[in-house]
Amino acid sequence: MTETLIWTVVALIFIGVYLSWTAGRLDRLHTRIDAARAALDAQLLRRASVTQELATSGVLDPAASIVLYEAAHAARQAEEDHREVAESELSQALRAVFGEPEQVELVREAPGGEEAAGELAAAVRRVPMARRFHNDAVRAARALRRHRKVRWFRLAGHAPFPMAFEMDDEPPVALADRPS
Amino acid sequence: MRIGIVCPYSWDVPGGVQFHIRDLAEHLIRLGHEVSVLAPADDDTPLPPYVVSAGRAVPVSYNGSVARLSFGFLSAARVRRWLHDGTFDVVHIHEPTSPSLGLLTCWAAQGPIVATFHTSNPRSRAMLAAYPILQPALEKISARIAVSEYARRTLVEHLGGDAVVIPNGVDVDFFAGAEPKAEWQGETLGFIGRIDEPRKGLPVLMKALPRILTERPGARLLVAGRGDEEEAVASLPAGMRSRVEFLGMVSDEDKARLLRSVDVYVAPNTGGESFGIILVEALSAGAPVLAADLDAFAQVLDQGAAGELFANEDADALADAAIRLLGDGARRAELSARGSAHVRRFDWSTVGADILAVYETVTDGAAAVDTDEKVGGLRARLGL
């Protein structure tokens, strides 16, 4: 009788430690998602800011300036549930304007243009990076949260179910191309 | 930025991953970052000042060749101490799925962790069995880097998730500026790699060689790399053996000079390659490249635009292509020019900037790397 009791207590402790460890794993994943999301937000904001700066600098022709300004403005002002669409539209606007290497050259030749073009190139390259890291974290957390032990024991607490950030982040060819 | 880099393979043995880490560390130090590399190494090996030894490595068969890995209680303790003393802003692990320091670091660290996946092994049963063991450790990686589109595909298939592709770097100007050596010039084919490792492909080249040497009476083959030289030429007719020259292990300078000198660089590797740094080095030196059409090689060679490809393990196709290239100086010059332009994207200035961009993305606003106090964390959670 005592022996059964001891074994039950040992088993319960073991299960408790295991669940606690899993909760810790989940907690770490949620922290990772938060950090990745903050990094993604920062990169998206940076991209929109550089675009807006370029659009208002007068280096580009008026049509291209308006297209870029509108897209960058919409991306910055977008509500959370419209964000993915707005950012995708900014990617498309950037691709439309900077599709030709000549356009990039034009920006580079303007005073201070070298720096602006470099910043934009860095921004369009880092957005896909940050998005991949974010979605990778989301996938890992989702895989764990779908597990029985997590659902039955409600180890995720009140944390919202993580959502991937889906958008078109293909950079413009002329900007993304590595030096040749 | 304080950067900790973890090398899974023994520092004593030269290899692609080790060279990549050495060049990355030196590039980052030149840019003014503080870098510490943790690597397995014998106690009496002279180490560069930025390398910290994690103790001796044990030879283990891994990924189709014998690798010298480090694991066990002592290694784990050294990893923890290194993490604790280093207070790194970011830790960059290489090959985190290999049973070595990378995995141990993943286990012991918390904070911004970047991992580079070099190999692309086919899906194996061992991998499937290891998945539940690996997963909790791999979950801690904030950013994954794959060295090629091919490596990324295998990573996504095996482990799920995603990675950014950043190729391995090469100091292009070091190879482009090397002085050719007269005695290595004049209808020469070049091969660099371990002689006794079949997947490096020397046997395929040896099978193709008799026909090449018959058709091009002035041609020679120069082989640089470790291994049994007598055994390597055993399949050749006796009269031809003198036209294969073994240079043994060569220094970096001699490797660059060799690549600058040869008429055609041959890469007959049969598999297990996820990148092909040697091809990038050959292109940097302006050598016309003839390579097996492995996925990874085709990608480095821009699907055949920057170098010629032949059907993998097909000695006849290799012989045909080699004979054609040796007889066509204009084509060689064209390949050399295209290769030199294409290879700029693999220069450290580009690759290093991309890797730093990854570091900055994951460290933005994050706390520094620290050891993961599992017991302490548990105690806190239980309210003790």
TrEMBL record, chain A:
Protein keywords: Membrane, Transmembrane, Transmembrane helix
InterPro entries: LemA-like_dom_sf (IPR023353)
UniProt keyword Membrane present: yes
Cited Gene3D superfamilies: LemA-like domain
Protein name, per record: Membrane protein
Domain of life, source organism: Bacteria
SUPFAM superfamilies, per database record: LemA-like
Transmembrane helix in keyword set: yes
TrEMBL record, chain B:
Protein name: GDP-mannose-dependent alpha-(1-2)-phosphatidylinositol mannosyltransferase
Lineage: Bacteria, Bacillati, Actinomycetota, Actinomycetes, Kitasatosporales
Pfam families membership: Glyco_trans_1_4 (PF13692), Glyco_transf_4 (PF13439)
Record carries keyword Glycosyltransferase: yes
Molecular function in Gene Ontology: glycosyltransferase activity
Keywords carried by this UniProt record: Glycosyltransferase, Transferase
UniProt entry tagged with the keyword Ligase: no
Cross-referenced PANTHER family: SULFOQUINOVOSYL TRANSFERASE SQD2 (PTHR45947)
Domain Glycosyltransferase subfamily 4-like N-terminal: 14-173
InterPro entries xrefs: Glyco_trans_4-like_N, Glycosyltransferase_grp1
